[in-house]
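ligand=magnesium ion
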Amino acid sequence: MIQKSDMTILKIAECNAGKDGKVLTVDIAAGKALAIAVATGRRQILPLGEAHGRVVCEQVNAASSVPPFDNSAMDGFAVSSQSFRGTGPWQLTITDRIVAGENPNRDIAPGEAARIMTGAPMPEGTDTVIMQEHCIRQENSIIVSQKPVCGRHVRLAGEDVAKGNMLLKRGTHLNSAKLALLAAAGIGRVDVFGKVCVGLMSTGSELLEPGEQMVPGKIYNSNRYYLLSRLNHPWIEIIDYGIVSDDADAIRKLVRKAAAECDILISTGGVSVGEEDHMLDVLAKENAELEVLKVAMRPGKPVTVGKLGKTLYFGLPGNPYAAAVTFEKIAWQAILAAGGSAAKAFEPIHAISGFDLNRKPGRTEYVPVTWSETDQYGRPIVRRLGRGSSASLLPLAEARGLATLSPDHAAISKGDLLQVECIEQ
Ligand code: AMP
Ligand code: MG
């Protein structure tokens, strides 16, 4: 996780720059959001079966070794490697039979063998398992013609995990493998952070819900569905406040309610300075402390980040591509931090530009890209999708990734190295 103390990028002179409407870089704006994100102090102890996707709030150590005892990795015969002196073949007497879940009945001496099944404990005196396919079974003995390698087909106690070892760090998301690992190490319940409560609000008198009858002048609300889907994580609880029209009183009432109910509030639309953009007035009346008003990015210049009391607030632009990109680049890392997560919001890969583009420098630009070929180093050669309209969703929906064009890059040429963040397909 980016530590707040590590945020040397936040140069003192620029720290308050957002309040008076100065345009901030994406990094500074995202850093400011992260700096005011507070992890919920709430904790829960959950049985493993209910903990999928939740965030661990304490380091977890193994309660038991994995495997807990030396055991056979094969169906075969447990023997002592001391039995194989001189030249073979060797005949060993079968003196015991051990199945998984049972304990050996007796010790095994050199010259003896125990019939053993996969997962059964190795008897005292043995160190090697001979696969049943590698010996000839006679009534009460086996004939072994090839000397076995000492230790073969034995899983030693603790060889996967030793008791007391660290399994998971604080801030880890519990996925299937991690939950299985905890189970294997004898941990039945896990301490996790309480869910982060995120409120969603779609502002705009022109908005209709998909499925409703189209009316002239209206458009369907798409931001709501981008955000509902993106926030659909087991560690997040969403309160969906739906659509609110461009009416300052209605917005104010709902903002006040949401600020009382949510850890984080995200609204879309109405954050510019148009006559029907009421969000900034409402925020001022509600005594919000704003850190970010404008960001040098394309799409998405007007983005509001601040605090409404204890609630972290993101005012994203209304245009759908801009809402999506500002969510990813400004809000998501802070939301992760609020959930106690140590995950990085993005881990870009190197890609090669397959397009030429002349652009006005000054803003960080995010370009939806796709690819079907790679260069000799395996780097994707990316094609640009769409024409960069902040209202267009189709290019983003077709994209395999989002390329970042840095603010000082006026011309992108074929063959240039680009940073691309992959989009979940
Ligand atoms: P605004 O940021 O409110 O000025 O809105 C900018 C543009 O985005 C306008 O064309 C709006 O109609 C559109 N828009 C606002 N909210 C949404 C939404 N939830 N879904 C789709 N488009 C939206
Ligand atoms: Mg609007």
